[in-house]
């Protein structure tokens, strides 16, 4: 089993989402959430979006160190995978691609909602705006008259391969990697054991800077493949809770690993 750090040892949660994409945290609520978890540093890694209120690669918000990051989905030989970029500085190329991706997200959300409403004969309250994603739709389904909670909405309606699933138009691995490499200080592969073929996904790290070493998978995984990749490609360890709620610190880096992470991109 890939062990999580004991409670209290996580000082940096480097994977979380805010209301800028599909999370519930805001920059105002983030410091208190971090204090409750005993976390000293976080990375805001919203899906396909930079945070409009973060203007530097690293900021301090109410005493909390906040690394400006991004999570970008790309299409690779190993299937669709997620890349985490840390220490974001806006480049023209990145901004243009994120604008395109947000428009595609809105179009995709409309198509999914149309399907769900027709299938269930319900009306869903979804705001079709930048940052919209399937979690917004799942929450709307759970709040509707339909007999589905949030998890069932994903499992039976809008998850991959389900009747109302609609794929997004995303960049290929090389294009996405290069965009992030130009705009960020460090690019990492997110949650390698969430993919259908983790070994194939880990092969992609040959041209990356890091890999998400600590992640709350909720199941047993064999850590040896990721450890071999880290050694073979001299990768920096990243880690985080992937919080879409307000509970931080479920996974992340200890103090020594966080120092290595910060030294690797030194914005």
Descriptive overview:
With 267 residues, this protein is α/β, with parallel strands linked by helices. The chain folds into 2 domains: 12-89 and 184-265, Alpha-Beta Barrel (TIM Barrel); 97-158, no CATH class. Helix content is 35%, strand content 18%. The protein contains 8 helices and 8 strands. Strands 1, 2, 3, 4, 5, 6, 7 and 8 form an 8-stranded mixed sheet that branches. Helix 7 links the parallel strand 7 and strand 8 (236-239). The longest helix has 29 residues, at 92-120. The chain is globular and about 55 Å long. The model has no long low-confidence stretch (mean pLDDT 95).
Report on the biggest sheet.
8 strands, mixed
CATH superfamily of the largest domain: Metal-dependent hydrolases
* CATH class category label of the largest domain: Alpha Beta
Rg for CA atoms: 18 Å
| Share of β-strand residues | 15-25%
How many structural domains are formed by the residues?
A: 2
H and E order: EHEEEEHHHHEHEHEH
Fill in the CATH topology of the largest domain: TIM Barrel
Give the overall silhouette. globular
